[in-house]
Amino acid sequence: MLVEDLFEFKSIENKEGKLFSKVVINASNAIFEGHFPDNPITPGVIQVQLVKEILEEELKRKLSLKSMGRCKFLAILNPEITPEIEVEIAMTETENGLKINAVGKHLEVSYFKFSALYINK
């Protein structure tokens, strides 16, 4: 884990090449004291990292981000307002690595979406 006790996986389900995970973000983590005081915002790098950690947890192997395609942060993810998000990851193993498309959302709000290529560490 990149930052201790920042988030936890409530569930991870693998259905036909897609992962569905529920993630709880710890709004009391010290990272939010600086990002930002009285207005906690989950950093984009943390949102990308939690996708990597979901993949590693489910696939039982260490991964390294090789390249990233489109990456969009679509809404502010304040863990005090939205402590739990759903992450959906479509994945395909290729000769170049693991290609993914990920979306983080809660109800009708999408917080991030990106495509990336991971390789084994």
Count of structural domains? 1
The shape is: globular
Spatial sequence of strands, sheet with the most strands: 1-2-4-5-6-3
In the CATH hierarchy, what is the class?
Answer: Alpha Beta
Q: Extract low-pLDDT stretches.
A: none
Number of strands: 6
Main sheet properties: 6 strands, antiparallel
Integer-rounded radius of gyration = 14 Å
Distance between the termini: 15 Å
Q: Report the CATH architecture.
A: Roll
CATH topology tier name: Thiol Ester Dehydrase, Chain A
Which percent range describes the beta-strand content?
over 45%
**Total helix count?**
2
SSE order, one letter for each helix or strand: EEHHEEEE
Output the CATH homologous superfamily. Answer: Hotdog Thioesterase
**Overall average residue pLDDT:** 95
**Structural category:** alpha+beta
**Overall helicity:** 10-25%
Describe this structure in words.
By secondary structure, the chain is of the alpha+beta class. It has a single domain, classed as Thiol Ester Dehydrase, Chain A (Roll). The protein is 17% helix and 50% strand. It is built from two helices and six strands, in the order E-E-H-H-E-E-E-E. It has helices spanning 31-34, 44-59, and strands spanning 7-15, 18-25, 63-73, 84-94, 97-106, 109-120. Strands 1-2-4-5-6-3 form a six-stranded antiparallel sheet, with helices on one face. A hairpin with a 2-residue loop joins strand 4 and strand 5 (97-106). The radius of gyration is 14 Å and the shape is globular. It starts with 6 loop residues before the first strand and ends with a strand. The model has no long low-confidence stretch (mean pLDDT 95).
